[in-house]
Amino acid sequence: MAKNKEYSFFSIVVLALALIALFVVTQFFTNKSTRALNEGNKQAVATFLINNSIQELVNLSFDLQSKFKDRNLKVNSTRISQLKDSLTMLGYNTDIITSYTSSNSHEISNIIRNIIEEQLNISESILNTHISGNVQEKNKLIDSLYKVSPGDKVYANCLTLQAFLRKNLQETLTRNSEQAGQLSLYNKILALFAIITILVMSTIIIKRQSQQLKLIAELQAAEQAALKSKNAKDEFLANMSHELRTPLNALIGFGNLLKDTPLNKQQREYVDMVRSGAQNLLNIVNDVLDLSKIEAGKLKMVHKPFNLYHLFNRLERMFSNAINEKGLHYSSYIESKVPEHVIGDIERLQQIFVNLIGNAIKFTNEGEIKVTANVVWIDEDDKYYKLGFTVKDTGIGIPKDKVAAIFERFEQLEQGVQRQYGGTGLGLTIAKNLVERMGGTISVFSEVNEGSEFNFTCILEKNTNPVSEEQSFITIDKLPEGKVLIVEDNKANQILLKHMFGKYGLKPKIIDNGLEAVNLLEKETFDLIFMDIQMPEMDGYTAIGILRNEKQISTPIIAMTAYVSETEIIKCKNAGFTDYISKPVDEQLLIKTTASYLENIQNNNHHTLNYLYELVGNDPDTVGEVVQAMKNQWELDKAELIEAFSQQDIGKVKKILHRLKSTFSPLGAEHPVYKAIGKCNFTTMENKTLDLQQCTSFIDDIEKEINV
User: Transmembrane stretches, by residue range (predicted)?
Assistant: First the structure.
């Protein structure tokens, strides 16, 4: 392929140079032919002028010769003037002949000039004798003129000159014709070669263009294949995440539940081992997914305020159990210049620390772990700080031949007993990538059996509007009253969620898939819905689309899935889910989220149902029964109202509207539903046609208020 490209390129260059050379040669002959043609034209014009002058010259010469031979010539002043003018004209024509003849004919023209000059001299002398009256001298001069006979000589030499000029003109015209023929031939050759060159170059260009288009198509196909492969990889990782997180959700959840039950020492040890193994497996899954997002360029860094000092406190609490179990000493130090309130990505910064501190604890059997923070440089104008962080341990250290590659993916200490510590070898790779994304660098100094010191930097912005103090976790003993529906196909997760909610006094309704959810929600209402994404019969995305778009259900629905990518979260929000909780489910986050939504719903209900609550003595169960009864009656009345409109039965419409007022009277006269019924403008109609569109608008208004 490369040789063909070189050959075609060389061919184009050769053809182009040949075409240029042919243009130069043709231009040369064109210029030569043009010059010859110009010379021929000049020569033709000169020949024409000379011929005219020769004719006048011969005529004047004969005429003057005849006049001056007359011995009885009568002269006066006028006659003398006329003869002198004729002599001047004779000399002028001689000059024209001499000036327009070429170098080849100068010899003949000079002979003619000499003859004319002799005739002029004799004629002027005769004219002078006429004036002076010297007859004897005049006769001698006339005799000389007879002897010279200039007219005959001029005539003979002029004939010779004309013949010579005609011959030269003919040769010039013949030569011009030959050059014109050569020029025509070269022009034809040029035109033919130009056509051939254009065709060849066009063929080469078209061929190369087709090869380029083919290459583009191949590249597009390769790009599609790469995209397909990437999508397959993303799909595989998403499926792997789901398949691993689903059982992990049960392992971690039931482990946490089991931990809170009465256990003996051995059982507690077993439970801790199960929880630790499940958590380690979850960390591995998270590492793989994080690395995949980093490589795909999809890892997003957030920019939000946080308290750096609180982060250090949180890290100490997070690792306190592991530190105590191994009998290690943990200390932290923050330089006074380090700002407390900063702006950056606290989650990713914490992830870096978790990797480094976790490794330090894992590879340290005795001694201490020390974490420090200091200022590298400060940009006071833009309020940016480059901070340096250190995680130092007294562990087993890293061999010198491993230090250079310690941040490479899947790189671990492979020798001997070091392998017992496990791990994927991705933690430091991810930490390095995160540090670089935050504008910093990471390095390590280590000595075998002496410990390791990891140093990294990152750029954070100082927050001039400090965030509020970190709040302690709110302890929730009992969840607010509310009807909660869980749509989850995994039986283990169903049992887990049932017990999780049961700890806080809530008994959710649990069903297996999205299809059951759609059918159930047509008949029954709930305050809050948790829905898995991947389910048999009907998945979560299909179900949420039907519930939001077709059924117009506005109940908060929270996606609960093992898919945890940023793309999946956005997809959930765009599909219509109110919120998102990832698996394995964090119990505190689940309960906190549930409490928040149920409290909001309860507050809204109290706001819109104040009259009803007062009416039944603030009994939420009774309120629920009354509201459900009103909804059931509304469904019946709505159907009758539509039928009455279609039958144009005004009397029946009035009865139904009156019944609706009675149905919703427990809400109070100020409730929007009751007001909407009172405002309907078709209640006073008599003997008029009922507009079905008005009925539809009225029903939509009531439905909206009921949904609220």
Answer: 7-29, 185-206
Report residue 449's pLDDT band, with 50, 70 and 90 as the boundaries.
Answer: confident
The pLDDT of 312-330, averaged and rounded, is 87
Burial class (CB in 10 A: 0-12, 13-18, 19+), 439: middle
Domain 300-462 listed as CATH 3.90.45.10: no
Distance CA 334, CA 371 (A): 9
Which has the closest alpha carbon to 611: 628, 629, 598, 626?
626
Position 430, amino acid: I
What confidence tier does 281 reach under pLDDT thresholds 50, 70, 90? low
C-alpha angle 693/696/700, rounded to 5°? 140
Tokens 């390129």 correspond to 9
What distance in Å separates the CA atoms of residue 476 and residue 591, rounded to the nearest whole number?
8
pLDDT in tens, 147-161: 878 878 888 888 887
Residue 301: phi and psi, rounded to 5, are: -100, 130
What's the rounded Cα separation, in Å, for the pair 111 and 81? Answer: 28
Range 277-284 contact pairs with CB under 8 angstroms and sequence separation of 24 or more:
277/251, 278/248, 278/251, 278/252, 278/584, 279/252, 280/422, 281/244, 281/248, 282/245, 282/248, 282/252, 282/584, 284/424
Indicate whether 417 pLDDT > 50: no
CATH 1.20.120 occupies which residues in the chain?
2-195, 615-707
Of 6-10, 287-291, 434-438, give the range with the top mean pLDDT. Answer: 434-438
> Which residues is 445 bridged to in the sheet?
453
Handedness of CA 636, 638, 640, 642 (dihedral sign): negative
Distance CA 708, CA 700 (A): 13
* Cα distance between residue 279 and residue 584, in whole Å: 10
Is CATH 1.20.120 correct for 615-707? yes
Q: Which of 62, 167, 183 is nearest to 108 (CA)?
A: 167
For the domain with range 484-600, which CATH number is right: 2.60.120.40, 3.40.50.720, 3.40.50.970, 3.40.50.2300? Answer: 3.40.50.2300
* pLDDT tens-digit readout, 527-579: 899 999 888 889 989 999 999 888 888 889 999 876 656 677 788 888 889 88
Three-state secondary structure along 623-667?
Answer: HHHHHHHHHHHHHHHHHHHHHHHHCCCHHHHHHHHHHHHHHCHHH
Residues of CATH 3.40.50.2300 domain(s) within the chain? 484-600
What are 667's two structure tokens? 């809400």
**519-526: long-range contacts, CB 8 A cutoff, minimum separation 24:** 520/485, 521/485, 521/547, 521/551, 521/553, 521/555, 522/551, 525/483, 525/555, 525/628, 525/631, 526/483, 526/484, 526/485, 526/555
Predicted TM-score (pTM) of the model is 0.46
Q: Is the pLDDT of residue 292 over 80?
A: no
From CA 112, how far away is CA 667, in angstroms rounded? Answer: 142
Determine if the peptide bond prior to 262 is cis (ω within 30°): no
Q: Torsion angle, CA of 471/477/483/487, rounded to 10 degrees?
A: 80
As a whole number of angstroms, the distance between CA 463 and CA 433 comes to 25
Average pLDDT estimate for 256-283: 69
- Calpha distance 164→101 (Å, rounded): 10
Phi, psi (rounded to 5 degrees) for 530? -105, 130
Flag the least confident range among 30-39, 336-345, 582-591. 30-39
Q: Let me know if domain 2-195 sits in CATH 1.20.120.
A: yes
Give the least confident one: 74-78, 137-141, 504-508.
74-78
